[in-house]
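no rush on this but wanted to send it before i forget. theres a chain ive been looking at and ive put its sequence and its fold in token form underneath. please have a look and point out which stretches look like helix strand or loop to you. thanks a lot i owe you, the record is right below:
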Amino acid sequence: MRIEPYLARQTERHPEKTALVVGAARISYGELDRISGSLAAGLMLHGVKPGDRVLLLLDNGWEAAASFLAVWRIGAVACPLHPSLKAEKLGHIIGHTGAAAIIAPLRAAHLIETAKIAAGSSLLSILVHGNTPPTDGALSFEALVAGNWQAPHAHPGSDEDLALIIHTSGSMGRAKGVMLTHANLDAACSAIVGYLGNTEDDVVLSVLPLSFGYGITQMVTMLMVGGTLVLERSFAFPRAILNRLAEVGATGLPVVPAMATMIAGMQDLAPGFLPRLRYLTNAAAAMPPSTTAALRRLLPATDIHLMYGQTECIRTACLAPAEVDRRPLSVGQAIPGTRVEIVGDDGLAVAPGEVGELIVEGPHVMVGYWNDPAATALALDVRDGRRRLRTGDLFRSDAEGFLYFVARRDDIIKTRGEKVSPQEVEHVLYSLPGVLEAAVEGVADPVFGQVVKAHVVMAPDVLLTERDVVRHCAQYLEDFMIPKLVEFHEALPKTTTGKIRLSLTHPSLDDKGNVA
């Protein structure tokens, strides 16, 4: 089904129930229905139509949640963007999507004008301004929300209409717009609700940006079951977030590995310090086994769900909590309604234990990339009306069908005629006491083509040397996998979604180890 009817359902069931908590503000389902309905009507009065693309350049907050729902109530397409986006990229997205409107904070006014000029666009700007009304023709978000507009009738569109265009991080070039329908989002989130066992009693605290698929699923799953979503803007102050978890009685916490490692590294936390936390999920990147083990000790009554997905299919696999200790390197099995296959270069399925590309088929697979038929054709194989996604990720499975991520195809290091998975080396690095963050890449070498280089962040008050790191790796890795170079950092570069991304500061390398 479409997503916005879930709001109507929860409003009818319990209008006074808290839907959102942001700072000291608590927004009920009835209030969220009124706010999003007024905003939708105001946008329509100013020309936004079904099918129009509306850019959302917003921090985590009730304004962002209400904007998603307002856009969907119109029948338009929400295009969430991270609020740190720069003018050049914003201009490209404005032009590429042909966006009709953008909702953003007042501080982004100059950025938007610069991007509009570059794109040659006259899109409508709606600014969240607080107590300083916007000028220069921009509309006031607060005025639209407070307006006495009549809420639009439920949009009669199909669940096959586009709900989202989410722009990828663009690590391999310009960001691509992943097109997801209401049916895609509904299928993925219904499966997530099922395996997490979500109910209206859940309180999920999320610092994940609502520009990110993993963040959006927190909002939609709570909307589906009538739970409460607590939105925080960042994990910059981990101690404050842990205190907030206890304060709001959170039952669910979604994390990325960088967050999990920070929690696991806190030395003064007593086991069971969050007694109400029912589950913790991990996605976006693989969790180091040493981090998982530390979390299991700190949160013995909390279920840990290790997950895998891509923006192009939202979620693909999840490891049941009962399997975490037995298979800490696995991301589990395909979620309900999903079919996966690991294939070799010939397109045929490989045997258990062999490495190949993961192919995903299911109702949650995207319909393509916006205005990019060439990229769509490379990523999707449509057979008998069924979409099969070529993930570009290398996997293997065991005899029982559990999946193991090996590497992005483009990240494989080729050295001395051998192939090295960066993740395998990173797991060993994380098992060295004192390592807080680690990442591995291949760097050009005139003899071996590439050699393995490790980037390491040490925990406070820890002193490691290059020799310590190499000696530790030599205990667990084959010779060709041992880092030949080790560089220490105060912190490693990360994407807006919390993934460590060396390419943010280092040039990418081609198959021969040359700068691409």
